[in-house]
Inverse folding.
């Protein structure tokens, strides 16, 4: 068990009628706000109208940056930073999923750089300490960006997708109304759900570090929640209980409450970020394809107990089996969840990805070293795992 500090300064308003607090939260930061959003889902579901009317009635001057791409581009972040610099913006509002929130965080950080270029922070591995305040209004239960210290930014010119980190990047305030996610297509619901699941699996549960029982039980509870409620949300998109469970699970997975001082391995995330950097695929789908293959690759007598425990606690695999057999059943149950229950296509070939870039992707994923986690992986291992995904 490691020593740890838990401190998450994000103030979360969770539930149906919380957006009325937006005004008071904005006004503590100033009178000029930049609203950042994506391709228009917030206009279709009415959230855009709610935000703009609250902001205008508060006497706050509103600027906008729309069109944030899934897998947000550094060039879009830089456009937002330029607006902040030119207009002396006091606070950045992000309304959308992880891409929009990450873009807003990147803007908030780049606004404090001299050249206004977020890529100089991202590529320099800078731990961000100075940002404009960000208020996140979440519409997709997935990335945990609404409560975490990370922003994942893509540079399509160089096929790079890299996390920008810093406690300063944690939003000051988040609004989580499960109703905002009613309009999510089932594909995004499925991808988001598997992202939540994998954050726990990748970062903590199978991080290969000493942890303690309370944390393992809590991690398993959140993963069970995803397994239980995602099919309901897919079948009944306006089921409040299902959307609420997934939304809070998204935040719990990465707000460090389940962390317990572990250093995250992020094995599947490192492999997936290369896939979306090269092929612009949906993050959660890439994770769903990689995760069962990764588990199959690392399965041996030393890793079997942890994998089998996942099966027993999360997927209801029977107890008392030989550990390797139990681990195999667990991987089968996980695959069924991804490809049958969630309905995600099971291979990279299905996404028109072949092995052309596997070697360089594997090297990038290891960033000159190796991937840690339940088992240490070198680029040659990663390349083999990618091939298992074809
Ligand atoms: O752009 P709009 O029109 O809003 O549509 C989006 C987008 O097309 C749509 N959508 C979102 N909420 C909706 C909705 N459509 C209808 N109704 C709603 N309520 O869904 C599509 C995907 O949105 P996006 O924000 O890209 O999805 P997600 O939340 O999964 O974010 C993915 C990004 O976050 C990064 C991923 O790598 C990817 O770039 N991640 C960020 C992390 C972090 N900050 O800590 C950690 C994660 O591991 C992840 O890497
Ligand atoms: Zn993720």
């Amino acid at each position: 068990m490691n020593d740890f500090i838990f401190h998450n300064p994000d103030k979360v308003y969770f539930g149906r009628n919380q957006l009325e607090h937006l005004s008071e939260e904005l006004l503590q930061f100033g009178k000029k706000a930049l609203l950042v959003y994506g391709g228009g889902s917030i206009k279709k579901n009415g959230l855009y109208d709610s935000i703009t009317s609250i902001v205008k009635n508060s006497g706050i001057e509103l600027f906008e940056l729309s069109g944030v791409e899934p897998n947000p581009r550094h060039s879009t972040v830089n456009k937002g930073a330029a607006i902040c610099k030119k207009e002396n913006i006091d606070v950045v509002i992000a309304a959308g999923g992880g891409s929009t929130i990450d873009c807003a965080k990147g803007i908030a950080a780049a606004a404090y750089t001299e050249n206004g270029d977020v890529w100089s922070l991202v590529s320099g591995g800078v731990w961000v300490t100075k940002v404009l305040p960000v208020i996140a209004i979440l519409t997709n239960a997935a990335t945990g960006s609404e409560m975490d210290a990370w922003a994942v930014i893509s540079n399509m010119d160089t096929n790079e997708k890299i996390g920008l980190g810093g406690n300063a990047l944690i939003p000051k305030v988040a609004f989580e109304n499960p109703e905002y996610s009613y309009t999510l297509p089932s594909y995004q619901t499925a991808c988001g759900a598997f992202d939540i699941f994998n954050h726990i699996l990748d970062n903590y549960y199978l991080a290969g570090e000493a942890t303690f029982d309370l944390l393992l039980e809590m991690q398993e509870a959140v993963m069970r929640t995803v397994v239980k409620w995602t099919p309901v949300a897919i079948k009944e998109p306006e089921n409040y209980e299902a959307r609420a469970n997934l939304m809070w699970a998204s935040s719990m997975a990465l707000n460090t409450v389940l962390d317990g001082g572990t250093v995250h391995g992020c094995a599947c995330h490192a492999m997936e970020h290369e896939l979306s950097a090269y092929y612009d695929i949906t993050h959660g789908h890439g994770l769903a394809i990689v995760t069962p293959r990764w588990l199959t690759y690392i399965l041996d007598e030393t890793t079997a107990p942890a994998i089998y425990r996942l099966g027993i606690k999360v997927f209801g695999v029977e107890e008392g089996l030989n550990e390797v057999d139990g681990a195999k059943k667990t991987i089968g149950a996980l695959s069924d969840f991804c490809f049958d229950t969630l309905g995600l296509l099971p291979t990279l070939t299905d996404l028109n990805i072949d092995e052309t870039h596997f070697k360089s992707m594997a090297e990038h994923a290891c960033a000159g070293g190796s991937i840690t986690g339940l088992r240490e992986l070198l680029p040659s291992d990663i390349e083999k795992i990618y091939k298992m995904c074809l």
Residues 143, 195, 199, 269, 283 surround zinc ion (ligand 2) (CB under 6 Å). The longest helix spans residues 213-235. The chain is about 50% helix and 10% strand.
